[in-house]
């Protein structure tokens, strides 16, 4: 998004995202909850695929199916409209961050219950020391940015608790 305006035109990381996405033609792009919506619709629009929102309970207007999952601090749930994906459709699940992998693994289970084939997951930020990728049932995971070390990341978040994500 706006790569030229942000000095990222030609950035190999953005090229990697583009190449990874374009090799799987004609599949929906589920975006997980609110922050995943910053990326999912734009990517889906850019490649001409549909966008399927996966939301927290009670936020979608029509009939839904749901998938509960365990977090490090409790449980949560994702919902998707019934009929949003069809059996055999290929999906890329997009989110802003992977830590424990709970949200992405719930998204995978939900889509596969509806007969979709989850081809890959993509996140802007990955926290490799938390090892969330091991919960993705062998699905490939593309990560744009990883902090150099967890102590640096935790210190940054502790000093600025009023934001969830900053994009430069």
From TrEMBL:
The Phosphoribosyltransferase domain, residue ranges: 31-126
GO aspect biological process, one term: purine ribonucleoside salvage
InterPro entries for this protein: Adenine_PRTase (IPR050120), PRTase-like (IPR029057), PRTase_dom (IPR000836)
Matches recorded under PANTHER family: ADENINE PHOSPHORIBOSYLTRANSFERASE, ADENINE PHOSPHORIBOSYLTRANSFERASE 5
Enzyme class (EC, first level): transferase
Assembly information from the UniProt record: Homodimer.
Pfam families, alphabetized: Pribosyltran
Catalytic activity: AMP + diphosphate = 5-phospho-alpha-D-ribose 1-diphosphate + adenine
Name of this chain's protein: adenine phosphoribosyltransferase
């Amino acid at each position: 998004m706006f790569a030229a305006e942000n000095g990222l035109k030609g950035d190999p990381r953005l090229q990697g995202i583009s190449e990874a996405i374009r090799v799987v033609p004609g599949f929906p792009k589920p975006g997980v909850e609110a922050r995943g919506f910053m990326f999912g619709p734009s990517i889906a629009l850019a490649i001409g695929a549909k966008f399927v929102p996966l939301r927290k309970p009670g936020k979608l207007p029509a009939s839904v199916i749901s998938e509960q999952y365990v977090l490090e601090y409790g449980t949560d749930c994702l919902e998707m409209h019934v009929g949003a994906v069809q059996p055999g459709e290929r999906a890329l699940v997009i989110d802003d961050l992977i830590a424990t992998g709970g949200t992405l693994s719930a998204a995978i289970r939900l889509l596969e219950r509806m007969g979709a084939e989850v081809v890959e997951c993509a996140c802007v930020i990955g926290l490799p020391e938390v090892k969330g990728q091991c919960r993705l049932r062998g699905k490939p995971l593309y990560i744009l940015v990883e902090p150099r070390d967890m102590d640096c990341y935790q210190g940054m978040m502790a000093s600025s608790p009023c934001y969830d994500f900053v994009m430069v």
